[in-house]
Amino acid sequence: MSRVLHRNLRADPVLAATGDGLWLRAAEGWGVIDASGGAAVACLGHGNRRVIQAMTAQAERLAYAHTVFFSCEAAEELAELLVGEEPGGLARAYFASSGSEAMEAALKLSRQYFLEIGQPQRRRYIARHQSYHGNTLGALGLGGNMARREPYAPILADCFSHVSPCFAYRGQGEGESDAAYVARLAAELEDEFQRLGPDSVIAFVAETVVGATTGCVAAVPGYFRAVREVCDRHGALLILDEVMCGMGRTGTLHAWEQEGVAPDIQTIAKGLGGGYQPIGGVLAGRRVVEALSAGSGGLKHGHTYQAHPVACAAALEVQRIIREEGLLERVRSLGERLGAGLRERLGHHLRVGDVRGRGLFWALEFVEDRATRRSFDPDHRVNDRIKEAALRRGIAIYPMGGTVDGTRGDHVIVAPPYIADAAALDAIADRMADAVQDVFGTSAG
Ligand code: PMP
């Protein structure tokens, strides 16, 4: 009997034994293609020798030194690589051990910024419905995923509110132009600032491309420029959560590069260390850093394992490989192939409402009725059944039960490692189509 407190205590867990390239193998011997990199984590696949050697070398040299006494070379070099050229004005990096921890640090950093510049009345954050920013209490309170929030609602802080996300498939009106949709969402955000009192807002927080909850939703063109304007008008910060969509996943190192705006604060995690070590990060903009430096002198936040040497060494090697091997271009070109492959095989399926994504970050949304976009009853467990069918077909894809239109929606994420080749992507699209067929029986609509 397992003594680990698992997600599911009613069944014995499957033991993963080995990982090699795109493949994961269970202790029982069977293997699957890791077609979602876990939850968009394993950007280099498994067993990368360079990363393993970098980790080992770091552990042999220095496994740990507390940041109250020391920084370490790996953390300094990783920060230099990420923000040395100040992309979008981001000037310093803080390293944590997960996406949630990064989000907590971003919340505190943004509050501290306003304390430093003499605006202590700012205490509110505006995020979006159906969003997910992590499972720790601050990040959970910030997020708008009702199913995850609900059990803990009585113990969440009251400084968070939510506006509509930019989710064209579910939110854009019939015949409504992108410009009109953007204007409507910006007006809603403006109204929320007014309702709260504009000078009480610390930040608007959004995922640049939504991963968790609703699955690979990129905003319509102009959306991020419009929300940036609303934030600027009221002196609030823009925090972009790129824990899932960042670090090359959508074809540029930062997903915001494709939106024509940069955040004041950004969170990163999964693709940062590619799963080789638990590591997340916060990238802080110049004006935020300068305010801390001129004010109290530094970040009033920290953890025992922040900027852990072995975690930073792993992430540094992952990021060097992404650059040296031209993997961003690869994500862009292979991403088009994966998207086209999924669309071709499943775009017309009766139960597939939407195929959406960017780079190597794709989702399928399943619906009971394509015309009305009605979701399945949660009792059908559609995304879990698709996940199970896909495993039987030899691919691991990530199931999501987000909330759409107040009901639970079914999506799965396909997010293969950046090292996948065209043949592997075609195999993933084929197996995905087989899995969908296994669950619904019907094919084209
Ligand atoms: N933000 C986003 C956008 C995420 O997708 C996730 C993880 N799914 C988190 C934050 C939390 O990261 P972690 O699970 O590493 O705490």
UniProtKB/TrEMBL annotation:
Pfam families: Aminotran_3. One of its GO terms (cellular component) is cytosol. It comes from the Bacteria. InterPro entries: Aminotrans_3, PyrdxlP-dep_Trfase, PyrdxlP-dep_Trfase_major, PyrdxlP-dep_Trfase_small. Its cofactor is pyridoxal 5'-phosphate. One of its GO terms (molecular function) is transaminase activity. Keywords: Aminotransferase, Pyridoxal phosphate, Transferase. Belongs to the class-III pyridoxal-phosphate-dependent aminotransferase family. This is Aspartate aminotransferase family protein. It comes from Muricoccus nepalensis.
